[in-house]
Amino acid sequence: MLIACEFLLDELAKHIETYLIETKGHWLRLHFAHIYQKGFNNDILQELQKWCNDITVKYPSQIFDSDYFTSLPEKALVSIIGRDDLQMEEIKFWNYVIKWGIAQNPELPSDSKDWSHENFLSLKTTLQNCLPLIRYFQMSGDDIYNQVYLYKQILDKNLWKDVKKRLASQNQPILSKILPPRTILSQTLPTRITEPFSTVISEAHAAEIASWIDKRTDSYSVANNPYEFKLLLRGSRDDFTANTFWNLCNKKKNLVVVVKVKGTDEILGGYNPIGWEKPSSNDSEYTYCNDSFICSLKNGTIQNSILSRVIEDPENAIYNDSDWGPCFDDFIC
């Protein structure tokens, strides 16, 4: 994709971009910081930039705490901190912006207390497009005096004057533009009763499956699960026939299948990133896939989860048969 961009093969680059977003989301997440950095170096990849920003809004630490953060292009940083729905405290944005700005000026002394007026001017010039996007009037007095005050020279003089006035009294009139508070998503459950996304697995199971999808060595917590699990088919609600499966799930990508063995605590399942496609005739067919997996989940008397990935014969990993529901090789759910 990046090579296609380099050679100005826009149509090919857009095609690959769409393919990655629709079918390789787990791979993009695994290399998220690097993809984000490279994506914003190419104006052609607008959809990839939007996809990255939507992830960053909910989980900003994936970018801000990455090794690639200080090498982000300015355009990428501006696009992040300009969002009204970024889920992070405002003072943290300030600290990350300062960190990024300092990294762009390696000649600056390591201790800002030793900086000259010219040093602060260099940082101010570097951050001229970022500083107006910080919500200074949403910070606490402690944050202003403990963390912003040291760099007051990079702020517009009238802005700094207004910040101090507002800290002294919320009723003080000011001339500076006050940006609205960022919209922080509620961390509490809604009071209304909603249908659970699954009657077989829990939110903790979903987080574990998400970790396997992203090939993480450590598991996501329930709160940090980056995936939304949407119920497509429930046997007790829609029935268990093959026709129902094909009607509701044919050609759907990134499918998770789970079943509970009757009379036991055993939960079996699997993940198919490419989806099942109903054969046009009565013939059955195998499909190549090396990112799918099957699993057994920890539940009740089952003390440990078991994950089984494709190691041999990936060309037979997914089995499509119009007379059957979802099949992984010879494993039928």
Structural features:
single chain; 333 residues; 2 domains; four-stranded antiparallel beta sheet; elongated
What would you say this structure looks like, in words?
The chain is α+β, with helices and mostly antiparallel strands and 333 residues long. The protein has two domains: 2-168, no CATH class; 203-332, no CATH class. Helix content is 38%, strand content 9%. The protein has helices spanning 2-6, 10-23, 25-30, 32-39, 46-58, 61-64, 74-81, 90-103, 117-126, 141-148, 157-168, 203-213, 235-238, 242-249; strands spanning 255-260, 267-272, 285-287, 293-297, 306-309, 318-320, 327-328, 331-332. The strands form two sheets. It has a four-stranded antiparallel beta sheet with strand order 1-2-4-5, covered by helices on one side. Helix 4 (32-39) packs across helix 5. The longest helix is centred in the N-terminal third of the chain and has 14 residues, at 10-23. The radius of gyration is 25 Å and the shape is elongated. InterPro entries: BACK, TLDc_dom. Residues 199-333 form the TLDc domain. Pfam families: BACK (PF07707), TLD (PF07534). This is TLDc domain-containing protein. It comes from Gigaspora rosea.
